[in-house]
Design a protein that fits this description.
It is an enzyme of class 5 (isomerase). Belongs to the TrpF family. By secondary structure, this protein is of the alpha/beta class. The protein has 7 helices and 10 strands. Helix 6 links the parallel strand 7 and strand 8. Bound molecules: the ligand O=C(O)c1ccccc1NCC(=O)[C@H](O)[C@H](O)COP(=O)(O)O. The ligand O=C(O)c1ccccc1NCC(=O)[C@H](O)[C@H](O)COP(=O)(O)O binds next to strand 2 and strand 8.
Length: about 210
Amino acid sequence: MPKLSNIKLKVCGLRDNIPEVVALKPDFAGFIFYNKSPRYAGDTLLKDYFNDFPESTMKVGVFVNHPVERVLETARQFNLDFVQLHGDESFAECLHLKANGLGVIKVFSGNKAIDRDRLIEYAEVVDYYLFDTRLKSYGGNGVAFDWAQLKGLDLPKPIILSGGLTLENIRQLEELDDLDIYAIDINSQFEIRPGMKNTELIKQLKEQMQ
Ligand SMILES: O=C(O)c1ccccc1NCC(=O)[C@H](O)[C@H](O)COP(=O)(O)O
């Protein structure tokens, strides 16, 4: 595991206090376009605001089994840099999105054994693999991912680690060698209510990551 200071930060599920969170300069900011999520942001986001986003923060749209043309349409509307796909999106769908100029983060949920061959198959059409805990909901469950599963995986694309990350367990990550994590993704453990992030906790994390 690289030092925390070398790891990028993605804050996911923004909606109700976007400017305050973006002022903290996360490397990625995630917006949920899945309308069954309590963090669904599709109806409230201001498209103009997205044109003024700081260049250092990548805008990520989160989707679950949406038709690919709808993902593209949403990405154009909100000027997204990346799409994060939490469902059963195929290689062909990822390829189509990439061919249209989008960065692709494909989510692989960790409630079953990791299928390395499948990950390798997706390598040419994804920018990052994101590992998350899947329970009843597709994401934002707040349950820690069993990161020991990633040990020694040696994948061709970088890993974003997600799933129930907190100030406390992120500290433990550094003790695990042999884990090559590019970024961490925080969500429900850093919010006041779904969609309203706790900026004080995020500031503490940023300090911890320096
Ligand atoms: O956050 C949601 O409500 C959500 C719903 C459906 C698909 C994805 C969703 N979140 C995506 C994320 O990237 C979360 O950060 C990730 O699932 C981890 O969340 P948490 O376990 O709360 O830290």
